[in-house]
């Protein structure tokens, strides 16, 4: 006999949920103006839909709908390369500022 909280009657081939319900909140902005709206999505269903932790994605706005599109491997590689180049550029700018400060003070 199955226990009261048994998962024996659980559906084996249950169809994945295709709808989720959320409430638009706000993101604190630290200013006195009204904070901007924010949506925070969580759940293992994101991974099932192709949204791995740390992966990037694109948001498109189409006819009042938000469409979330996981970036392809190529797009992720390009974005990562861009971040590396931005970091290198920042380091070069920092070095240039230091050199200019040394030149001016001497």
From TrEMBL:
<dbReference type="GO" id="GO:0016788">
    <property type="term" value="F:hydrolase activity, acting on ester bonds"/>
</dbReference>
<dbReference type="GO" id="GO:0003723">
    <property type="term" value="F:RNA binding"/>
</dbReference>
<dbReference type="Pfam" id="PF08845">
    <property type="entry name" value="SymE_toxin"/>
</dbReference>
<dbReference type="InterPro" id="IPR014944">
    <property type="entry name" value="Toxin_SymE-like"/>
</dbReference>
<dbReference type="GO" id="GO:0016070">
    <property type="term" value="P:RNA metabolic process"/>
</dbReference>
<protein>
    <submittedName>
        <fullName>SymE family type I addiction module toxin</fullName>
    </submittedName>
</protein>
<feature type="domain" description="Toxin SymE-like">
    <location>
        <begin position="19"/>
        <end position="69"/>
    </location>
</feature>
<dbReference type="GO" id="GO:0005737">
    <property type="term" value="C:cytoplasm"/>
</dbReference>
């Amino acid at each position: 006999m199955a226990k009261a909280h048994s998962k024996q009657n659980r559906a084996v081939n249950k169809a994945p949920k295709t709808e989720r319900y959320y409430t638009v909140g706000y993101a604190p902005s630290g200013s006195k103006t009204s904070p901007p709206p924010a949506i925070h999505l969580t759940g293992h269903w994101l991974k099932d839909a192709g949204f791995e932790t740390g992966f990037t994605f694109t948001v498109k706005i189409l006819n009042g709908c938000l469409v979330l599109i996981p970036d392809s491997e190529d797009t992720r590689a390009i974005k990562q390369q861009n971040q590396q180049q931005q970091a290198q550029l920042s380091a070069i700018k920092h070095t240039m500022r230091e050199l200019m400060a040394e030149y001016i003070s001497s």
